[in-house]
Design goal:
This protein has about 600 residues and is mainly alpha-helical. Helix content is about 45%, strand content about 10%. The chain contains 20 helices and 17 strands. Helix 16 packs antiparallel against helix 17.
Length: about 600
């Protein structure tokens, strides 16, 4: 038994064996007039028991048994599917095209071999394997909604579809919308078609005798042509820089954009394809409403905010399937707040700073500010390179590490004293503010693709309510720190360890200590003015003759009541307070 008109395997068997592609079932699922009269008009489901009884009555039925088996069902309605062979529109992938003389399959295989960048790289072989084995593309569907295939039918049944007639219909729909196909006559739809001047028009064609066909395009043909409607027609650039979708789209949107693009232009419509995995529940199971393991996006956005959700997504190795639940988003919220709080610190110390003074403020390479700018330049280069590779997880980690370590744990701690206690217009304070402004501006730019709302809010705080970070380009920071900064950083770590050990002798607070640092080669002398702030102690000196780090106990010396530092200049002032020279100057300057 085989039925070439009612199933894919049977169809190809019929083609191979030269059988007629016989399909006696009509569109509504009933048998037509070519079957015996006792079956005509019955649906296939109604006919099944009738056939059984007919065979039994005639003595031809050897055995009848009902059994349960797998059968394809429509995923929307849950109804069983009837396979019917019908006339359809196809795009051939094997026939040579008129424009470049090779088939779409050959051109697509060549493009995916070398012309397209795949992220991750395994997407290349996946897509090529599907292209290699794919059949011709059936682009027609029989549904009551969708974009119509602009074909017309002559009285003798011949189908009319030429390049010129299609352009005429396109012009009509462009003027009056796609509903015009359903509401207007063929004459109205083809008012701009010069039949006599169309060499592809059938002889004897009369527009007023045409009927409209009602097949619609496969939706993949529509979405697969978006590069033309969105980019090429509007002059926005072709090929498109990037296509981004899930791993199922090597068979779908990626492939079915590639074929029309190659057919029309001869080249791929995209330069790069990014493939991501899918979101599963915490146990790694596919999310399903029936299983009750889905996440409600509205609730997530309301609970955590859009930027936290984006921040979480950026932390993932997106090329694989990922797991999600509310607890994971809560953890993302905690790390997001560390980044946001770093930005808040930078912005909160710029209220009295005029950005126009930035260029006039020199930043020595041996200052903690010079180190911070150099770190920012290195960090920005790393992040931009990761963006260029679409390595968003690397971007996420670099942003978090820079905010949490270089800024929060080192730089922001080191400059708090000068920001809070120096005279408002002190050169050192202004220099630090310049660096804070430059780093905040850089952070906003780098965060914008991942945290658009947070970045834009901070950007407006920097540049005014009418500013928008998303209209800005990345800006280079060209700064080199002193070559001996790694040694200074190493000294900081060593002194912090020594201070931890000094707690045993009663020195609980770093500001109760001074430190003498061995510097046999004199490499650290230029950093001496910055070392106390970098380490967080009251005093720091370098000594070329010292052999080991020495912690000085300063608890018996007076502490500044304003900065809490046990500075050698602390003394009682005219107002009765104990202040260092620096802090007394700031008090007097503020009036």
């Amino acid at each position: 038994h085989t039925a070439p008109g009612h199933g894919t395997d049977d169809y190809f068997t019929g083609i191979r064996e030269g059988l007629d592609i016989y399909c006696p079932v009509q569109a509504e699922g009933t048998y037509d007039e070519t079957v015996p009269d006792w079956l005509q008009g019955l649906s296939v489901w109604e006919a099944n028991p009738v056939v059984v009884e007919r065979l039994r009555a005639s003595g031809h039925l050897l055995h009848h048994h009902d059994y349960q088996h797998s059968y394809p069902h429509d995923w929307r309605s849950g109804s069983p599917v009837i396979f019917r062979s019908t006339e359809q529109w196809f795009i051939s992938v094997n026939e040579p095209t008129k424009s470049h003389g090779t088939s779409l399959r050959e051109k697509a295989m060549a493009a995916t071999a070398s012309d397209i960048n795949f992220v991750p790289e395994w997407g290349r072989n996946r897509m090529r394997g599907m292209l290699e084995s794919r059949p011709d593309w059936c682009i027609s569907r029989q549904r009551s909604w969708g974009l119509p295939i602009p074909a017309f039918i002559m009285p003798d049944g011949e189908m009319v579809l030429t390049a010129a007639s299609t352009r005429a219909v396109s012009q009509a729909i462009g003027q009056r919308g796609s509903d015009a196909w359903f509401s207007e006559t063929p004459a109205q739809l083809l008012e701009h078609w010069d039949v006599a001047g169309d060499p592809d028009a059938p002889e004897g064609l009369k527009v007023d005798q045409l009927a409209k066909a009602y097949d619609i395009f496969d939706v993949w043909f529509e979405s697969g042509s978006s590069w033309n409607a969105v980019m090429r027609r509007r002059g926005l650039g072709y090929p498109v820089d990037l296509y981004l979708e899930g791993s199922d789209q090597h068979r779908g949107w990626f492939q079915l954009s590639l074929l029309p693009g190659i057919g029309v232009t001869g080249t791929s419509p995209f330069k790069t394809v990014i493939t991501h995995g899918f979101v599963n529940d915490r146990q790694g199971r596919k999310m399903s409403k029936s299983e009750g393991n889905t996440l409600d996006v509205g609730t997530l956005l309301e609970s955590h905010g859009a930027d936290v959700c984006r921040w979480w997504v950026s932390s993932l190795a997106y090329e694989n399937d990922v797991r999600a639940d509310d607890e994971l988003l809560q953890l993302a919220g905690e790390s997001y707040r560390k980044v946001r709080n770093t930005l808040r610190f930078l912005l909160s110390n710029l209220g009295d700073f005029d950005p126009s003074d930035m260029e006039a403020t020199d930043v020595p390479s041996t200052s903690i500010d010079g180190w911070a700018l150099a770190e920012a330049a290195r960090f920005q280069a790393e992040v931009r390179a990761a963006y260029d590779r679409f390595d968003f997880r690397r971007v996420h980690l670099a942003l978090f590490d820079f905010c949490n370590e270089a800024l929060s744990a080192i730089y922001c701690v080191a400059v708090k004293d000068r920001l809070y206690c120096d005279r408002v217009d002190a050169p050192r304070r202004r220099r630090t503010q310049r660096v804070l402004h430059e780093i905040a501006s850089m952070l906003c730019r780098l965060l914008a693709p991942i945290l658009p709302h947070t970045a834009d809010e901070a950007w407006r705080d920097l540049y005014g309510e009418d500013a928008c970070v998303h209209m800005e380009a990345f800006k280079d920071i060209d700064v080199q720190a002193d070559a001996n900064w790694p040694k200074a950083r190493k000294v900081r770590d060593d002194v912090l360890k020594a201070l931890e050990e000094a707690k045993a002798s009663g020195i609980e607070k770093p500001l109760d200590a001074g430190v003498v640092i061995p510097d046999p080669k004199g490499d650290l002398k230029a950093f001496e003015p910055e070392l106390a702030d970098l380490i967080g102690v009251s005093r720091a000196t370098v000594d070329t003759t010292a052999e080991a780090i020495a912690i000085q106990d300063l608890r018996d010396q007076p502490a500044c009541e304003r900065s809490w530092r046990r500075d050698a200049t602390v003394s009682e002032r005219a107002n009765g307070s104990m202040l260092s020279d620096r802090d007394w100057e700031a008090i007097q300057a503020s009036g």
